[in-house]
UniProtKB/TrEMBL annotation:
Flavoprotein in keyword set: yes
Domain NADPH-dependent FMN reductase-like: 6-150
One of the record's GO molecular function terms: oxidoreductase activity, acting on NAD(P)H, quinone or similar compound as acceptor
InterPro entries tied to this protein: Flavoprotein-like_sf (IPR029039), FMN_Rdtase-like_dom (IPR005025), NAD(P)H-dep_reductase (IPR050712)
Cofactors, names only: FMN
Keywords, ordered alphabetically: Flavoprotein, FMN
Pfam families documented for this protein: FMN_red
Name of the featured protein: ACP phosphodiesterase
Gene Ontology annotations for the cellular component aspect, listed alphabetically: cytosol
């Protein structure tokens, strides 16, 4: 059997009914057999503060860092807040990047999908996030780009993805599985 790669999935919204979380779950279902997607929770991470990040960091920091560093790849599914990434997501990125020189993100094959009910699909958030990922040495899949707009009508009441959007998500996750395998080859 070919290798199964574990993927730490970071969802940029903390909302219970988050569309982004639904997209993350849909991607987990659509993922090819060589990818195992696991959502890594970021809602309980204290706001990053170097003063509390000494010899005994908050348990939530340590858990999060371990979850990311023990994964083979990272996937970001995020809404756009004011043309950038939501604060909890930026916080999670900062937490994972420390202690200095021991970033949990370094070298993990990544991808970004931004999801918004708006028309431009969170383009601003997607590219602000990519700016940090360049610095964090996360090789990021370039194509297909994934800006999912009009996302308010993508899921039915049961949380099932629409037939119209399914091929878009399938193409994205199929390309990502190839990207992850290539980076680990
Ligand atoms: C503080 C705030 C700022 C927002 N800014 C944007 C924005 O810049 N662009 C956009 O497309 N949607 C924006 N939205 C709307 C979100 O895209 C929308 O609430 C979306 O459903 C959030 O994703 P979720 O359903 O996964 O929580 C904003 C929402 C909030 C709460």
């Amino acid at each position: 059997m070919s290798k199964v790669y574990t993927v730490a999935v970071v969802v940029g919204s903390l909302r219970k009914d988050s569309i982004n979380r639904k997209v993350a779950l849909a991607l987990a279902e659509l993922a090819p057999a060589n990818l195992q997607l696991n959502i890594v929770e970021i809602g309980d991470l204290p706001l990053y503060n170097e003063d509390i990040d000494g010899a005994t960091p908050p348990a939530a920091y340590s858990t999060f860092r371990k979850q990311v560093s023990s994964s083979d790849a990272v996937l970001f599914v995020t809404p756009e807040y004011n043309r950038s990434v939501p604060a909890p997501l930026k916080n999670a990125i900062d937490v994972g990047s420390r202690p200095y020189g021991q970033s949990a993100w370094s070298g993990k094959p990544g991808a970004v999908i931004s999801v918004s009910p708006g028309a431009i699909g969170g383009f601003g958030a997607n590219h602000h996030l990519r700016q940090s990922l360049v610095f964090l040495d996360v090789p990021c899949m370039q194509q297909p780009e994934a800006y999912l707009g009009g996302a308010g009508s993508v899921f039915d009441e049961a949380g099932k993805v629409s037939e119209k959007t399914k091929p878009f998500l399938q193409a994205f996750i199929d390309a990502y599985s190839k990207w992850v395998a290539k980076q680990h080859a």
